[in-house]
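Researcher: Checking consistency across runs. Here is Carboxymuconolactone decarboxylase family protein again:
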Amino acid sequence: MNTGFDGTGASALRRHAPDVADAIDALVALNPPTTGEPLAALARATCATALSLPPLPVPDTGEFDAATLSDGGRAALEFAEQMSVDVSAIDDPMRSVLFAALADRSAAFVTSVYVADWTPRLRRVLDQLFGAGEDGWSAPAHWNESPTDTWPLVDAFITRVAGLGELDPVTSEVVRLRAARQHNCRICKSLRNRSALAAGADESTFDEIDDHASSAALSDRHKAALALVDAMVWQPGFIDDEVIDAIRVHFSPAQAVELVVTMMRNATNKIAVATGADAANVSDGVEIYEINRDGSMAFGLTDPR
C-alpha cells in the first residue's frame, strides 16, 4: 500500500493541488442571487439530505421559514434534489418550471446546486482517504453574493484540475466515460480522448467500463478507480472501506487527490444535463478531443492510431 495517506482531506488537497483547492474555495463561497428567498443556501441542505452527507456552510441570512417558500422556490429545491439524486431524470417540464421561476438567474442557481451536490462528495472521500480532524474544512471568510454569471468560477476549477497531470490518460478517460454514462451526458458519451487512444485504449477497453467489476481486460487499478466513481455517484455517504483501501493500494496520494478532483470536474456535466445543454457535436460515431494543459479543450481532432 502506498504511504503518505496522512493528515486530513483538507490538508491533502491543499498539499497536492493548492490551485485546485483555491478554486473549490471560491465555488464554496458562492451565494448567488436568485429570488428574495435564500435558495442557494437552502439547496445546500437539500443536497446534503439527499446525499446523507454534511451540508456545506451557508451565510447567515437570518431566520427563514422554509414552509413559506413560494411555488417557484419549492420547484427550485425539487430540481436541486433531483439533480443531486439522478440528474438524468430531469426532463423538459422540470426545466421549464425552474426557468419560469428564476428566469435569467436559473444558470447561477444550477451552478450553486452543482457546488452543493459535489463538494460534499469530494470532501467525504478525501477525508476517508487521508483522515478527518481539526485541520478540516473551514467556512468561507467572505461570501460572493453578487455574480449572476457563475461559470467563470467553474471554468477556473476545470482549468486548474487539467493542469495537475499526475494521472495517466487512460485512467482519466475510463473514469470520465463511466461518469458520463451514469449521468447520461450525451456530449460526454460521444467523446474520446486523443491521448488515451494514443496510449492504447480503444472501444474494446471502453466496452468493459460498465461491467468493470467482472472485466478480465481492465486492470485492478482501473477497477479501483471505477468502483470509486460508482460510489461517489450513487452512494457517497456510504462508501465501503474496501473501495477506499483499493485507491490507497493502486494510487499515490497525489494521484488519489487528482482522481477525486477529476471526478468533481467530470461532474460539471451535470450542469449541462440539468439544463438540457448536453447535445453531442456529432450525430454518428465519436469525436476525438484533447484537454490542453492550460485547461482548454480541442474538439474534432484526428484519431492518433
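Researcher: Does this match what you'd expect to see?
Model: One thing to look at in this run: The longest strand covers residues 287-291.
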